[in-house]
Write a structure and sequence with these properties.
This protein is an alpha/beta fold. The protein has 17 helices and 26 strands. The strands form five sheets. Strands 2-1-11-10-12-13-14-15-16 form a nine-stranded mixed sheet, with helices on both faces. Strands 7-6-5-3-4-8-9 form a seven-stranded mixed sheet, with helices on both faces. Strands 17, 18, 19, 20 and 21 form a five-stranded antiparallel sheet that branches. Adenosine-5'-diphosphate (ADP) binds next to strand 14, strand 20 and strand 21. Adenosine-5'-diphosphate (ADP) binds near residues 185, 303, 329, 333 and 359.
């Protein structure tokens, strides 16, 4: 028997509509590409999203058509999120840090009809626009005064288009399972793959991340997503702020520690979210200022493992709580968030930090399990490692325009679960901890060594800023760990001291066979260390030495 409740679909337009009606005066503050600090309200944003929807109508856009963006976190990008999806088209965010050839591949694969681009990224698009087959027009996200000279024919000016449009628009109702936005994985191997989110998945995910056990968003919160709107929807934050009445602060292109500190301080930011590398520089700025931005309560850190030294630096140095998050493009992205329990407050600082470096407990809505090589479930005892699988209403069920018949997909989706490619443990309290990517694990003499644990240990050394551990070929043991480190500014760590430091923390047979000091580590388009590139460069490092 079916329930007798209304079938009103969960649509993205309803989020901003609600924000405008209930929290109409709440602010969105954005550092713009042109340099100024722009501020307006949710009701103004809603009016402009409606104008944009009328622009799409004039362009002849139909439901399901893809509209691409290449833009920073800012108010115009926010309007596109709502104007495009609310209209029924698909907002396709593109990561400008990808290689231009990948950007061209993605635009063609998605058959984007229009591209909305920030001034910063004009050169990128000028380099590839001739190869874009489906593209009908490029809209520059600026006003008439800042329109660039360009060889791209028929450029549109965003502000002119909005100006010439009416703000009378009724958001259409349609199936909540309709596609709303599209994001491609970074594709460190092979071509990037498209993950196509729906209105329903986006709403459910944004409700889950807003909860107290996650980002705790409300009218009292001021949130600054450092995580970019150009990759996995800034972890869903732009969708979670309007319906919770949260003030949204967009950092635009200025992501260095000092600029973030200033903006957080000036706007009273209470929470922020970003990848670990971003926070290294914010921590430096905090040390320089002698304090954290005044209202900052917690930072959500994810995308790569959070080192214990970072949890400690935020908490003991500045009284800022670290909440680790884990997820993937394929999971919208958030699957788990680590918020400690009251009972953890009785632990020593060190023991509590050991809990905080886990990736956290699953959000309500998703299920997690770990399995062995034969896909058999493994116990949640905090010790047994296995491949992490996830399922839920915001986990993707196949890639865009790719049938599931290829080898990867066969492995990726099985019995309604998605294989993450991460290796993890889950403890009795439900805290999941990633120990490695399947492809980054180091197998030495038949035993596994966790590169994440080793990196975590190394970054605890007072003179180590960043660390990467890779497995490289070894005649006797098959593979042995190699540690690459970047020194903290103004220091020159001594390798023997790093080795001694590690010896106190990990088993002897885990100790890296060599430690190399490097100027920097190669980072991918989403801020993760490119281990495949390091493996390629150093693959024979130990062979040559032997
Ligand atoms: P890409 O952007 O490269 O396509 P994603 O952004 O989807 O990739 O990255 C997903 C992967 O990032 C996860 O499978 C996991 O390996 C890693 N990751 C994400 N968050 C964490 C975390 N908190 N700790 C460790 N690894 C993480």
């Amino acid at each position: 028997m079916l329930g007798l409740m209304m079938g009103k679909p969960l649509l993205i337009s309803s989020i901003l509509q609600h924000g405008a009606e209930v929290y109409g005066e709440q602010e969105i503050v954005s550092r713009s590409v042109e340099g100024d600090l722009h501020r307006y309200s949710y009701s103004k944003a809603h009016q402009r999203a409606k104008r944009l929807a009328n622009v799409l109508k004039k362009f002849g856009i139909e439901r399901g058509d893809r509209m691409a963006t290449l833009a920073w976190n800012g108010y115009r990008h926010f309007e596109i999120y709502y104007g495009v999806s609310g209209f029924g088209a698909v907002c396709h965010t593109i990561n400008p840090r990808l290689h231009p050839s990948q950007i061209a591949y993605i635009l063609n694969h998605a058959e984007d009809k229009y591209l909305f681009v920030d001034l910063t990224f004009m050169p990128l698009i000028e380099a590839v626009h001739e190869h874009l087959e489906a593209l009908q027009g490029v809209v520059v996200l600026t006003d008439r005064a800042h329109m660039p000279e360009s060889k791209i024919p028929g450029l549109h000016c965003y502000e002119d288009l909005l100006e010439a449009s009416s703000e009378q628009f009724h958001w259409p109702e349609f199936d909540e399972n309709s596609a709303s936005s599209l994001c491609y994985t970074s594709g460190t191997t092979g071509n990037p793959k498209g993950v196509l989110y729906s209105h329903r998945s986006t709403l459910l995910h944004s409700m889950a991340i807003a909860l107290p056990q996650a980002m705790n968003l409300s009218e009292k919160s001021v949130v600054l997503p450092v995580v970019p709107m150009f990759h996995v929807n800034a972890w869903g934050i732009p969708y979670a702020t309007p319906f919770t009445g949260t003030k949204l602060v967009n950092p635009g292109p200025k992501l260095d520690g000092n600029s973030l500190w200033d903006l957080m301080e000036a706007e009273g930011v209470t929470a922020s979210a970003g990848v670990p590398t971003i926070w290294l520089d914010l921590l430096r700025a905090m040390r320089e200022q002698g304090r954290a931005p005044e209202k900052l309560k917690f930072v959500v850190i994810g995308g790569s493992a959070v080192p214990k030294s970072m949890v400690k630096a935020f908490e003991q140095g500045f009284g800022v709580e670290v909440r680790q998050g884990w997820g993937m493009t394929e999971t919208s992205p958030v699957g788990t968030i680590n918020v400690i329990k009251d009972s953890h407050l009785d632990l020593s600082d060190d023991e509590r930090h050991d809990v905080q470096i886990k990736q956290g407990r699953k959000l309500f809505g998703v299920d997690l399990k770990i399995v062995d090589d034969d896909d058999a479930p493994l116990p949640h005892d905090g010790r047994t490692q296995g491949e992490l699988k996830i399922r839920g209403p915001w986990v993707c069920s196949s890639y865009f325009k790719q049938d599931n018949a290829d080898e990867h997909s066969d492995r990726a989706w099985k019995d309604g679960w998605f294989s993450t490619g991460d290796v993890a443990t889950i403890d009795a309290e439900g805290y999941m901890q990633i120990t490695d990517r399947v492809k980054d694990m180091i197998k030495s003499g038949g035993e596994w060594i966790s590169s994440i644990d080793l990196e975590n240990a190394a970054t605890g050394h007072p003179e180590v800023a960043m660390a990467a551990v890779i497995g490289v070929s070894h005649e006797k043991w098959d593979e042995r760990p190699l540690l690459l480190i970047v020194a903290k500014e103004g220091t020159s760590p001594d390798m023997a001291s790093v080795r001694d430091y590690l010896s106190a923390q990990v088993a002897k047979w885990w100790l890296p066979d060599d430690i190399i000091l490097v100027e920097s580590l190669p980072l991918g388009a989403t801020g993760k260390i490119l281990k495949n590139r390091l493996r390629e460069e150093y693959k024979d490092h130990l062979m040559i030495k032997d």
